[in-house]
Structure formats: C-alpha cells, structure tokens
Amino acid sequence: MSDLSSSVKLKYVKLGYQYLVNHFLTLLMIPIIATVGIELLRMGPQEILSVLSSLHFELLHILCSSFLIIFVSTVYFMSKPRTVYLVDYSCYKPPVTCRVPFSSFMEHSRLILKDNPKSVEFQMRILERSGLGEETCLPPAIHYIPPAPTMESARNEAQMVIFTAMEDLFKKTGLKPKDIDILIVNCSLFSPTPSLSAMIINKYKLRSNIKSFNLSGMGCSAGLISVDVARDLLQVHPNSNAVIISTEIITPNYYKGNERAMLLPNCLFRMGGAAVLLSNRRSDRWRAKYKLCHLVRTHQGADDKSYYCVMEEEDKEGNVGINLSKDLMTIAGEALKANITTIGPLVLPASEQLLFLSSLIGRKIFNPKWKPYIPDFKQAFEHFCIHAGGRAVIDELQKSLQLSGEHVEASRMTLHRFGNTSSSSLWYELSYIEAQGRMKRSDRVWQIAFGSGFKCNSAVWKCNRTIKTPTDGPWSDCIDRYPVFIPEVVKL
Amino acid sequence: MFSKEKTIMEEDRVRFICKRTVVSTRSVEPGRLYHFSVLDHVMEPNQIRLVYYYKTSKTREPGEITKKLRESLAYTLNCYPIITGRLVKETDGKEEKEDVILRWKVKSNDAGMRMVEARAAGSVEEWLRSVTREEELKLVHWEDMYHLHYYWSTFNVQVTEFESGGLAIGLSCSHLLADPVCAMMFMRAWADLTLSRSMMAPPLFHPLPPRRFANDGLISNNQLLSQYIKSCSLMVSPSNVAEDHMVTVTLLFPDPLVRAGENESAISTFEILAGLFWICVSRAKGKRNELMDMSLCLDVRKLLRLDQSYFGNCMVYHKVPYSKPVKTKDRLLLFHAVEEIQNITKRLDYDTVMDLIEWLSSNNGAISNGSDLVCTNLENMSHPRPMMFEEDLVLRHMSCYVKGPVAGGGQVIVLPSPSGKGPKSRVVMISLPQREMTKVVEDELLLSFSPVILMKNTK
C-alpha cells in the first residue's frame, strides 16, 4: 500500500515539476500582466492619457521607431527558414500474386541450396524468429526455381514499384507531372544507367529544367537523406515542390551463395516503395498532412567498426552479398545515442532537458557512478516510426528509449505485413498510424532510420490536420486484422 | 545407330522457359491436416496427366496469356488447400499399440503448386497433326516424389504457348489426391475463374459418407470386393509390359451408336466402345477362343450420392467376366460383349461399393490391374457450357493419361469430344504395346466404325 501511494505521489510530483518548468515563462508572465492590469485599472483613463501626452512623442521619434520595427520584422521573416510541408505520400502495395509464405520460401531455399542443409536450417531459424508474416512479397524474378535476376527483370520491378506509387500520388494530390520541380530517387542497391530518376522523367515527360537527383548506396536511411536534400533545395527555390521516391529493388540483390551471414538479407528484405510530395508553397499549407520540424543526420563512418559492420562483398565462391557483422546491434545503439544527443535539445521539453543536464553535471562532478538519465522521449512525441529493419532493431530501440508496446506497434506491424522494405518502411509505418485513426492535428511523429555506413537519421514531423479514416493506402484491406499478436517463434 | 542420329537431328519443339511456384492469394490457416479416404490410399502409386489444347483467333504478346493464367491460378488455389499443401506421413492415432501404421496425409502449409512455362514452335493445329505420345508428354511437367516428400509439389501445371497461336495447358498430379474426374473439375474451375471471375462449382472436401442403412451382412458374390482383395494382397502378377514400350493412339469416333446399329438409348457410347476394344485387343493378342481380362474404371460419385465436385478419388475398377461364345460373327460378338459390360455398369450398386469401402478401411494395399485391359469412362465430363479461359480461346482437344500399376497392360480412355463434332461422338485414347497397336488399328470391326485418327503412334 505504501509502495503504491509513494509511486502515485512520485507521479504527481513529476507532473507538477514538468508543468512548472515547461510553462515557466507563462507562469512568470501571469503575475506581471496581472500587476500591470491592476495598475492600469487603478489609474483610470484620464491619468493614462496624461502619462502618454507627457512622453512628448515627436514625429521623428515615431517614424524612426516604426521604421526600426518594420526593418527588424522584415529581417526576421526573410531569414526564417521556409516551412516544408508534406502534402501527401503513397506507399506501393505489391500484388497478392507476389506473396511469399514461409513454407514456399523454405521449399525454394531447400531446392536451391540442396547441398547445404546447414544454410537452409539457418534460414529457417531466422525466418521463424523474424517477425515477418505470411503476406510479404518478393518480386516475380525471385519466384523462379532457381531465381533469375536479370537486369531486365530488375528494371521491370523498378518500373512496377515506382510507377504505381507515383500514379497513386498523382491521383491523391492532383499533382501534374509537368509541375514537379525537384525529383529525388533513392534506391541503394540498384543503380542502372540511365538512372532511375531519368527513367521517371522519361515515362512521365517531366520538364527539362527539373532538378533531379539519384541517391544510391546510402542504405536504409536514404529516405530521410532524400528529405534532407529536398528541404535544403526548397530553401533556395521559392514556391516549389519536390517528389521523393524511396524504394529498394530486390531483384538484383538476391544472394546466390550459401555464406550464412549473407543469407540474412534474403530472409528479411521484401518488395516495397513510397512516393512523397513535399512543398514550400503557402497555398499547400491548408491541405498538407505534415510539417517538417527537424531533421538530424549523424554519421558514424569515422569509426572503423561502424564503417565495416554492413559490407557488400564477395564470398569465397564469388557471389556478391551483404555481410552483416555480429555487433550490428551495439553499433546501432551507439549511432542512436549520437543522434539523440543532437535531437534531444531540439525537441525535448525544458523539464526533461533540465533533468538530463543536472544528471550530466552530477555524473561529471559529483559521482560518475550515477545512472545516466535517459530523457523521456514520450513527452516530446506522440508517435514513433522506427525503421523496421528486423525484430532485433525494434526490440533494441524499444528498450533503450523505454517505449511501450503501442509506440512500437506501427514498426512491428509493418515488419509483419510488408517485411523489411528498407528506406520506404518509415512511410508504411506512418500509413499504419493514420489507418488506425490515431493521427490527430499537432501530433508529433519521430521517424528514425539506420543505414550502412553507419548512419542514424531522424526526422520530426508535426501533423497539420487530423487525418480521417478510413484512408486509402496499403493497409486499407487488412487494417481490421491488425494489430496481430506476433509470437516469439513461429513453428515452421 | 540411325535412330539415335535421327533423335539428335530432331529439333525439340518444346522450349522450357522457367519453373516457379504459384501460391494462393490468401494465406491459409496453419496446421490443418487433410486425411485421405480409403479409395485415395488404394491409388497411391499412380499418376495422372492431362493436356488441354486451345486455339485462338487473336494474336497476343508472348507471355501475356501465361501471366494472366498464373494470376488466376493463384486465385483458384484459394479454394484448393489440398493442392497447396504437402504430404506428410503420420499415424492415424487410432490403432492399437503394436501396429503403428504411417499413412499419408496432407498438411495445409500454404506452399503452393509448381508451374512451368514453355514455348512451342508452330501452331496448335500443326502440332496436333504430327504429335506422338512422347512429344505430348513434354507438354506436361512431372517430377517423381523427392526423397524429402515434404518439399514435393503433388500437382504441376505447365503452360505452353505456341508461337503461331494457341495454347496447351498440361496438368499432372499424384493419383493419391485426385482422380481424372476431379482433376478435370479443377481445370474447369480455373477456366471459369479466369473467364468470369467466379467459380461455378467450388470443390467439396469431406470424407466419404458412411453407409446409410446398416446391412445384414456382406453381399454374397461381391465380385468387386473379391477383385480388390486379390489385388491388394498382391496375388495379381504385375504387368509385364514396361511403361516405355507403350504407344498411344487417339481416335475420334463420330457416331459409334449409329455404326453399331443401336438406336436404343439404353446403351451408352462408352459401353459400345468398351465392347469394341475388348474384342479388338483380344484378337490382337491372338486370343481366338476367349476374350482377355478387362476391367472397367467407373466413377461412382452418383452412386454414392456425391456431387460431381467432390474432390478425391471416387472411381472403382471392376473386372468384366465373359462367359459367352467368342467364335461368332462380329456383330453378335459385339452384342454379347456389350451385354456383359452392361451387367456390370447397370448392376453396380451402392451396397457393393460400400462393402468395398468398408473392407478397405481395415486393409491396406494398392490396387493393380496386372495385364488387364482397362477401360475408363470419362464421357460424362462434357458440359453444355464450354470450358474457356478467355472469350477467344476455344478448346480444341483434350488428352488424358494414367500411369502406374492401375493402368494394367493396356488402356482405353473414353473422353467427350470437343464441341462441333456431335453430341454422340467420342474421343478415345488407346495405349497398348506397339505390336498389339498395329493390329488393333487395322482390325475390320474397328474400321467399320470409321474412326478418324487424331494422334498416330509414329511420326
């Protein structure tokens, strides 16, 4: 009983402290305004007028002060960064005929790797604990026995994913292809010539003075890097919009060997893509879904261990695959800490920052053995979109940020329904939250993505208008079945 | 030496493109086990092959129709969890402690079925004019059961596009899961779904219904039962004709009833044709004083009050005894043969079959037809509504093969003929050893029926 009452008391103390610190300025202003107001009322209108007339305002004074005010406000408004709005986005929904159930995946694996039963066993164990569901999709070229990844089939997959997503985006936003000012495509592992952005320009006959970029090799965090590039460009170009395509083309990257660490991506990566429309036009202010508040990029590449942890290389037989090192999770934790240190001061309320600062000072000066205070990010954000890189990543982040099951639900359900779709998974997760009807006006969303290098990028969005359900999108036909319980191990 | 050279010089008209697995569009409830009926278990060592030929008037991009068929097959498989499952061997759980019998079951694990895509040179018409048994079997993909049966697909589909127009769809499956009737119903369901996006006759999966009314005892003189008893206890010698030496000829009989001079509707075309071949093959074997052993393969769904869309084995093999004179005029001989056949077809009744089913529940074994001639009745598989995948694809021809011990020493399969040839016409596929085949196709009685040769046994 005393435990309960003491914890309840503690909770109220904490609430009181937070309210006090976060609204400090307001609390300070109230007595001042009250005093001034009472003075004014006491003085009465006659006295006020006499005070004003005694100030001897001359025309010059008035002109100079008003000029100063206008000058300062102009400088302020000119130097304020342009707000970047996310008008709308669309996620690619793969056709049901590309579905890969576990049994089919394992059967193919067994037939193709028939000389390496240990590798097949390994894949089965990965799949059992992966957190994926039975409805994830692989591109048609991977369904062959043996898989037939050719350049042509990779281009076909790219066209299928990107064009479908773009057409959906055009329909949703009413955007005309000729109006696109900036086009950024990010696809890490498939980089043909001409580039994917050139492919889009050719298909939709975009303008010749379009600013197009194609980012490749930047891993699963490239989606947020593209947003960063778009944001910087939109500062320079007034009244423009930018279309970002985030995708990962699976076809050419199917690992054909039997080295275990390299078979892991085969089990987890699935087909997916997203198209996002950003704009800095004032007219889009009313219809935009989100507003970009912050975007923080941290790169741990200077550290050798981080650099080598996700490496594309050839195995002993010459097959190219992506080697994931065993200490991936520790490195991800380090990268996240670096990112949080930068983003914390930008987003955390004053109460949390004060606590963190005092804990830091305490550890430095008084006693290094004090537990480091982990700021409570749940105070700063209503929703979290953690890159669905794998079950381990989500578990690790849930633990280190002390998030509840509901906060990471979007990530877990996206991993279950769509698998690891690389850079576009953040958009699927955002779509999930909207489809569940949880997105209200002025809710803040934190998107965190990890990528090879090792990078940790995060973006903070603020919801501009309450999003009505039912929404159309990749979750429209299955959202009633979610959230589902995902067992620790699925017996295959 | 010369024949080998010839084979090397011959071009392979069928070109393999790829093999993949087609899964259903909806995920299945995991862990369901489907049991086989006793009629399924008894057919285990055999296989079925079907080939459907379609001609078209529209030109298409190569690969276009295959893609469409692949997608509609994925939707069709939603109704056939038994096809997308895999075989497991498990105990029934009902036996006493000592006899632990491992029986086949299907675990519904959503693994899908294999599909092979191929291209063929020429057009369907050209192909049909000059095809032989070996070439036709190239249009159907089949893999023998793997050592690890859990990864083996029981059903295989091959879609072959002809470069000058037309399509051939080959379906092969293990006889443990299906008989030719339900394999054809599966094709029909797939065609309906592709054409009109709805399935007219979804399959029914359920165990064989138990006997309706208790019988006082086994019927005396149950010939069907005694025949199965003999076969299942391996008292029948296996066929001494190797599979490879069988040749197949396909004949079209325009109006067998009229040729036989029978205008009564009491005799079915199957009975006439079975009688005809019984006589011709016996003569080809050199039998002068008797007719050879023959078994009829009959669908007993109607008899057991089951719907035609019941999925599973529901055909029984009944030997036909012949006790009448043989050295008579052809017409009279035919009349006698048909009479004996009718003794079986008209008198096969519910209780006889139920006795067999009940006996099989407590006895294992697989049926073999030794060196008998086996006549299979599939003439009722036609339907007033044609089986089309698309509006312009017209069914041109249908072939059916059954391989395994149940095929005996020779097979006669009576199929409906594609529309346009008359409701009473039939297509008959005859598989015999080479020497007997040459004699049968020259038999006078056979020629008096004016059959049209659709597929010869040599190029």
TrEMBL record, chain A:
GO terms for molecular function: fatty acid elongase activity. The active site is at residues 220, 299, 383, 387, 416, 420. Residues 382-462 form the Beta-ketoacyl-[acyl-carrier-protein] synthase III C-terminal domain. Pathway: Lipid metabolism; fatty acid biosynthesis. GO terms for biological process: fatty acid biosynthetic process. Residues 76-364 form the FAE domain. It catalyses: a very-long-chain acyl-CoA + malonyl-CoA + H(+) = a very-long-chain 3-oxoacyl-CoA + CO2 + CoA. Pfam families: ACP_syn_III_C, FAE1_CUT1_RppA. Its EC number is 2.3.1.-. Its main location: membrane. Coiled coil: none annotated. The keyword Transmembrane helix applies. It is found in: Membrane. The chain crosses the membrane at residues 20-38, 59-78. Keywords: Acyltransferase, Membrane, Transferase, Transmembrane, Transmembrane helix. InterPro entries: 3-ktacl-CoA_syn, ACP_syn_III_C, FAE1_typ3_polyketide_synth, Thiolase-like. GO terms for cellular component: membrane. The keyword tRNA processing does not apply. Belongs to the thiolase-like superfamily. Chalcone/stilbene synthases family. This is 3-ketoacyl-CoA synthase. It comes from Capsella rubella.
Automatic annotation (TrEMBL), chain B:
GO terms for molecular function: acyltransferase activity, transferring groups other than amino-acyl groups. InterPro entries: CAT-like_dom_sf, Plant_Fungal_Acyltransferase. Coiled coil: none annotated. It comes from the Eukaryota. Belongs to the plant acyltransferase family. PANTHER family: HXXXD-TYPE ACYL-TRANSFERASE FAMILY PROTEIN (PTHR31642:SF26), TRICHOTHECENE 3-O-ACETYLTRANSFERASE (PTHR31642). This is Protein ECERIFERUM 26-like. It comes from Capsella rubella. The lineage of its organism: Eukaryota, Viridiplantae, Streptophyta, Embryophyta, Tracheophyta.
